[in-house]
Amino acid sequence: MMFRWLKSIVVLVMLSFPLLGNSADVGDNYLLDTGDKILIKVFDENDLTVETRLNNRGRINYSYLGELEITGKTTEEVEELVSDKLKEGFLLNPSVSVTVLEYRPFFINGEVSSPGDYPYQPGLTLEKAVSIAGGFTDRASRRKIYLLRGDSDKRSKIGFQHSIEPGDIVTVEEGFF
Q1: What is the C-alpha to C-alpha distance for residues 133 and 137, in angstroms, rounded to an integer?
Q2: For residue 77, is pLDDT > 90?
Q3: Could you tell me if residue 60 is inside a domain?
Q4: Over 90: is that where the pLDDT of 26 sits?
Q5: pLDDT value at position 91?
Q6: Which CATH number characterizes residue 120's domain?
Q7: Do the domain assignments include residue 18?
Q8: Is the pLDDT of residue 8 over 50?
Q9: Taking a C-beta distance cutoff of 8 angstroms, is the pair 172, 109 a contact?
Q10: Which CATH number belongs to the domain containing residue 97 in this structure?
């Protein structure tokens, strides 16, 4: 009786947490890039709170500090950058937090009902991305699906549970049968 009760609790706890490894975990290692929208807050300094999108050069314009290069940095690195700059003549010990409000979109083209760009959602897989794009067309290949990631010019073949990240370009090729 006690063992069955304990087993039920273990199953409930396991169901409460998402499975690891199948989906993208953007989290702390996420590198900011053009199109991301961020919120910068400085504790007790409301006039230094900024909600902004990285421009096409990967930069933001921040009050008192001017233009800051943000591309390729994590939110923690941006917190440190802003904090260090504010210490240079503005604040003694600023407490800065940076949050990603909107990730840059992912793109899906080829044999899907509605190709285009779509807002990224954490945990996005190819299967979910195809669903967001309205599903496959009648001519779509379920095997010839390719991913282009980042600055790479090399496409890689992917399956339905493959993680999709912000900025990824997915191409669904045409099948013959």
Answers
A1: 10
A2: yes
A3: yes
A4: no
A5: 92
A6: 3.10.560.10
A7: no
A8: no
A9: yes
A10: 3.30.1950.10
pLDDT band at 152 (very low <50, low <70, confident <90, very high): confident
* 3-state secondary structure string across 151-175: CCCCCEECCCCCECCCCCEEEEEEC
Same structural domain, 69 and 56: yes
Domain range holding 139? 106-174
80-127 per-position pLDDT tens digit: 999 999 999 889 999 999 999 999 999 999 999 999 999 999 999 999
Beta pairing, strands 169-174 & 106-110: parallel
Give the residue from 102, 124, 159 where a domain finishes.
102
Residue 19, H or E segment: none
Mean pLDDT along residues 36-44: 96
Is there a contact between 118 and 132 (Cβ–Cβ < 8 Å)? yes
Q: 97 with 45, same domain?
A: yes
* E strand spans, the chain: 37-42, 50-53, 59-62, 66-69, 96-102, 106-110, 116-118, 140-148, 156-157, 169-174
| Burial (CB count <10 Å: 0-12, 13-18, 19+), residue 90 | middle
**Residue owning tokens 């003694």:** 92
Closest CA to 96 of 72, 65, 122: 65
Is 93 domain-assigned?
Answer: yes
- pTM for this prediction: 0.75
